Structure formats: C-alpha cells, structure tokens
C-alpha cells in the first residue's frame, strides 16, 4: 500500500511560527484563492520534501519568510513526517532531512524538536520504501547504457501537474520538458504499470552486467597482447638503444620478461651518466628537469596503484551487496510466520493462523540474521559513496600528475634542444637523446601494464553464462504485457474524453509511451495531442490520462502515491489577469464543472484509494466545487499560506 498527503506544514523563521494546511485523504481537496497567496507553492513544497535534488520553491513571500517545510504522509495504520530546511544562504539546496515515523493522526512537531540528520539519498530510499517501491528492481534506461532503480522521484512524474503543465500540448507528464527526463519516464513506465516482473528484471540486469564484463575483458586481453614487454615496439626500441650506445650488445635474444628491465636500464643508466658528468647539478636546468620528471613518474605510479585498490574495494562492496540483498529477500519470507506482538512468541501459521511454538527458535535466529544483513547493507551503502568520492579525487590527482608529466617532458625537450644548439653535440649524442626520449615515452604510456596482474581469460565462462540467460529470457512477455495494459488504460482515457466532449473522442485513443503523448487514430491518420488544437482539449486529455493512470495504479496496486495534484486547471477558461470575479458563465462554466465532475466521479469510484488536490483561482458556487474547498486564501479574508503576522515588510515578488 502506498500513501496520500495528510498535511503540508511551513515553519517561519521566527520562534513558534508554524502553519499547517490539512488535507482530506481519499477525496478531492480544493485550495482556492487570489494570486500571490501561496497556492502554487504547495506543489513545490511537497516536491521539495519528497527528496527533490533542487529547491523548486519560487522566490517570494514563501522563500522570504519560511525557514523549513514539512509534509505528513499517511497510509492505513502508518504515518510518516518528512521535514526539510530551506537552503542556507549561498547554498543551492539543503542535503539533510528529518524523517519521523509517527502514530496516525499525530500533529506536526515543533521545529525545535526536529533533528535534520538524514542524508538526501537515505531519505529518498525511505520514501521509496514507504511508497511500496521495490528498490531491488532495475530497469534499462532508454537510449542510455545503464539501468534505473525506480524511486519516489520517478513515481512523482504521474502525480504532479504544475501550472505550466496541466494544459500543455507538448508535455503530458511532470518534468517531461527537462533534460533526460523523457527517456527516464519511458524507462520507468513499465515498472509502475506492473508490466515488469522483478525476477525477469533481475535477470535482464545480470545479463547486461555479464555483457559489459565480457566487453571489458576482451579489451583488457587485447591491451595485454599489444602492450607486453616483448611487443614489436618494445623490441624495436631495445635494438635502437643498443645501436645508440645506451646498452651493450647482447649475443642472446632477451626473454619477454627481460625486455622491460633492459629499457629501464637504458633510460636510467644514460640519465645517471649524464648527471655524473656535470660538476654542478644545482645550476643545471636539464638535471633539475630530469629529476622532477623522475619524481612525477613515481607519483603517477603510486596514484595508479591507489586507484586500482579503490576500484577493487568498490567492486567487492558491490558483489557483497548483491549477494546480501539476495539473501535478505530469501530471509524476508519470514514475514509469513507472524509472532504475537504481546509475547513475541508462538509463531502463527500463515494459512490457519494456529500457533507453532516449535518455530520460535528458528524464527528468532532468522530474524537475527535478517537484522545483521540489514546492518551490513547499511554499512556497505555508506562505504561505497565514500570510496567513489576518494576514487574521483585520486583520478583528478592522476590527471594533474599526467599533465605535469607531459609538461615536464616538453620542458626537457626544450632545454635539450637549446643545449644542443649551444654545444653543437655530436650526431651520436643527439641520436642517444632521441632514443632515450622515445623509451621514456613508451614506459610512461604502456609499460605500466606489464606490472599489472595477469588478465585471466574467462571469456568462455562469460559467454556460457550469457547464453544461458538469453535462453531463459527468450520467452519474456514484458512487451506484450505493457501493450495490453496500455490498451486498457487507453480505453478509459477515451471514455473520459467522451464524457468531457473533447475533440476526436469518437476515434480510438491511445497513450503513446514512446512519444509520451496521447494520440487519436482517425480516418485521416494519427492526431497527436499537440495537433488537436484548443487549450480545452489539452486540459481535458491531461486530466483524462492522469485519472485513468491512477485508476490503473489503484486497481493493480502500483507503487505510486495515491495523490494527484493539479495546479489551476481553470486557467483555460479565465483570462491571465483574472482576480476572482466574475466567474465563468454559460458554456465555459459548464465545461469547467465537467472537469471537476469527472475528477469527483473517479475519486468516488475508487472509494478512498485516490486523493486529488487542486489549487485554483476560481471559487465556484456549484456544490460540486464548493463542498470540496478546504482553504480559501483571499485578500478579503487575509488568508494565505504565509500568515500575515509573519510578514514584516511589503514585497511584490510572486509565489506562483
């Protein structure tokens, strides 16, 4: 079961300032009021408290006078209170939240009792769990070589319709206009509609990882073959070093292991000889440059070793976490054996509920293992980001060292060129310097691979595992299920569109998840929402689509919050400068009431399983509207989201 919004709370910047806006669950709630009274801020506050990565609350009275925000989330028998401070000056967003599990109907605590210590990612995981999202499932990202773990942030695409979205012909879902969001929405829709089998998703993810491992292994093997000490380039450099007098002639052919050592000997021996031949190295720019280069090369080697260690640690963490999650899923089946809440004894049979006393010891042992696994997963989850951050720092330092090494070589080349021009070095000396430079470049760019651990050729094993998974997934019917579900949802959209009298509602209507729009299949060809014309059509199809999706989520127990928030659907029937009077008349009023009628009918049909929150300029006299108003924020009654007594000076910024 997932949640609905029970209340939104704002805390002022002065002690004791608290304002709570309550909402009724399982029904339609309307907040009506004048412009700049904070109505639209409700949606952005809820978004912010539900682990948004940015600060969506617009500039104005709310930002100026509110120091913290909170939402109370409710589902049968449970309540979750989530609070988040406004960002400190100079910060883009606050990265810690306060998340409290409460008894149902518990009021929001005072600000001074709140502890903001839950990191943003952890809060997002808690909210995802409270929403009923299976965080072990991963779905492929559309047009991107990665997977997506569905979260509360993805579920909100189907719960919000901001003021610039609710009648937008080009954007059907919340945040659809932002970069990468369309592909993300396409990727997560099958999961939230219930078309994704968790076991199949795990197999797909395993197949993707195996294919990636095979590709990486083939690249490493090719690299090892081409960059070994006995490669053609290395042996050619060895021959040139002998001819240039950097190494003595050898009668026997060196082995593969000896080639690298001889090249290093040629480079270090010539440098040592050059340094010893100079009486005063302190004043020699070439000696100083060569010394700095040697130090940089050693630093590069140490940095590479640290990065390799960190990568191994991250891989080990990921492997352990995967195995631990699989073990936890098996142990979690203990939920079928229920213990008495009073005595913590006498496990009950999940079928007949009769006590099974002999199961107590076994159940307790498994519960202990489950708690231990949860602790291990939490530790691993906190270690991995730290390791990744350290690895990123090391990578950055390595890049800096490489840049310095490149600059050092350029410095040595310039100094050498200048010295040769001044001293008119003999041809043999010039050739030796040239060969020494090429050896140095080779050692810097390729020879480090020789000292790395030997790459084990596991291609046959990986290819066998890939073939087995491909065989298992050959009968996957996810695509067929998604097509079937979309067909049923599209029928509901058409029924609602016909009730609203929308254009093309007499033709088959379909929800196109590839283009993220609604399409009418007419005798003249497909007509997309953007081509239907009339803001009334755009609004009507938005409302019909979102209501139909939430009907499906409710009936199929989809892990999406049972809340739909619409920001000013009446804008289609009001002028942009509407101030509250007059209300729409005649046909416009009838069409606007039809929107509210279809919302109310859907909510009532779902019998408490859906909550709709609408913020409006309009304030209609019809009982269909009037009976669902929970707040009126107008200048005439001095009501607003931010109480007037909090405001210490007049401002003109808009909150909506």
TrEMBL record:
Signal peptide: none
Keywords: Coiled coil
The keyword Coiled coil appears for this protein: yes
Coiled coil: 200-227, 293-330, 384-425, 452-479
Keyword Nucleus listed: no
Pfam families: DUF3732
Protein name, UniProt field: DUF3732 domain-containing protein
Species the sequence originates in: Streptomyces broussonetiae
Source species taxonomy: Bacteria, Bacillati, Actinomycetota, Actinomycetes, Kitasatosporales
């Amino acid at each position: 079961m997932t949640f609905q919004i029970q209340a939104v709370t704002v805390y002022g910047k002065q002690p004791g300032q608290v304002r709570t806006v309550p909402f009724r669950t399982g029904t339609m709630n309307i907040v009506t009021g004048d412009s700049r009274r904070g109505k639209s801020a409700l949606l952005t506050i809820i978004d912010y408290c539900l682990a948004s990565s940015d600060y969506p609350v617009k500039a104005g009275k709310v930002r100026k006078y509110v120091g913290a925000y909170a939402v109370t989330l409710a589902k049968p028998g449970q309540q979750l209170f989530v609070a988040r401070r406004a960002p400190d000056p100079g910060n883009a967003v606050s990265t810690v939240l306060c998340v409290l599990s409460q008894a149902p109907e518990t009021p929001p605590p005072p600000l001074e009792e709140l502890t903001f210590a839950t990191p943003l990612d952890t809060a997002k995981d808690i909210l995802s769990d409270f929403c009923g999202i299976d965080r072990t499932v991963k779905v492929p990202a559309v047009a991107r070589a990665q997977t997506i773990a569905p979260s509360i942030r993805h579920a909100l695409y189907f719960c919000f319709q901001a003021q610039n979205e609710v009648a937008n012909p080009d954007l059907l879902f919340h945040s659809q206009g932002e970069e990468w969001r369309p592909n993300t929405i396409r990727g997560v829709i099958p999961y939230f509609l219930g078309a994704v089998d968790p076991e199949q998703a795990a197999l797909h993810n395993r197949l993707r990882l195996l294919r990636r491992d095979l590709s990486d292994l083939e690249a490493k093997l090719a690299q090892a073959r081409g960059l070994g000490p006995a490669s053609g380039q290395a042996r050619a450099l060895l021959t040139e070093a002998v001819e240039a007098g950097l190494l003595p002639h050898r009668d026997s052919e060196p082995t593969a292991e000896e080639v690298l050592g001889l090249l290093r000997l040629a480079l270090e021996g010539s440098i040592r000889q050059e340094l010893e031949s100079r009486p005063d190295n302190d004043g020699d720019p070439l000696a100083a440059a060569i010394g700095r280069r040697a130090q940089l090369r050693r630093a590069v080697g140490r940095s590479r070793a640290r990065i390799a260690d960190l990568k191994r640690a991250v891989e080990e963490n990921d492997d352990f976490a995967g195995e631990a999650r699989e073990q936890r899923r098996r142990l979690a089946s203990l939920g079928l054996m229920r213990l008495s809440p009073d005595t913590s004894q006498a496990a009950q049979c999940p079928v007949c509920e009769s006590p099974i006393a002999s199961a107590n010891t076994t159940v307790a042992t498994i519960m202990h293992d489950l708690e231990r696994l949860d602790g291990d997963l939490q530790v691993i989850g906190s270690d991995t980001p730290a390791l990744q951050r350290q690895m990123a720092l090391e990578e950055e330092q390595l890049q800096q060292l490489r840049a310095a090494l490149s600059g050092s070589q350029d410095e040595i080349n310039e100094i050498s060129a200048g010295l040769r021009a001044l001293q008119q070095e003999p041809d043999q000396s010039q050739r030796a310097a040239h060969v020494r430079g090429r050896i140095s470049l080779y050692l810097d760019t390729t020879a480090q691979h020789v000292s790395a651990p030997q790459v084990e050729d596991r291609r046959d094993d990986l290819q066998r595992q890939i073939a087995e998974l491909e065989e298992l997934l050959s009968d996957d019917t996810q695509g067929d299920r998604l097509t079937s579900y979309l067909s049923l949802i599209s029928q509901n959209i058409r029924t609602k569109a016909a009730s609203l009298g929308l254009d093309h509602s007499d033709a088959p209507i379909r929800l196109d998840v590839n283009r993220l729009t609604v399409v009418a299949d007419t005798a003249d060809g497909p007509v997309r929402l953007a081509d239907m014309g009339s803001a009334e059509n755009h609004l009507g199809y938005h409302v019909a689509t979102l209501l139909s999706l939430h009907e499906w989520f409710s009936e199929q127990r989809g892990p999406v919050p049972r809340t739909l928030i619409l920001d000013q659907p009446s804008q289609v029937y009001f002028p942009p400068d509407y101030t509250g009077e007059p209300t729409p008349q005649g046909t416009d009023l009838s069409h606007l009431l039809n929107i509210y009628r279809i919302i109310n009918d859907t909510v009532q049909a779902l019998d408490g399983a859906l909550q709709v929150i609408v913020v409006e300029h309009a304030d209609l006299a019809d009982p269909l509207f009037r009976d669902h108003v929970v707040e009126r924020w107008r200048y005439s009654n001095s009501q607003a989201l931010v109480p007037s007594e909090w405001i210490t000076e007049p401002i003109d910024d808009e909150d909506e």
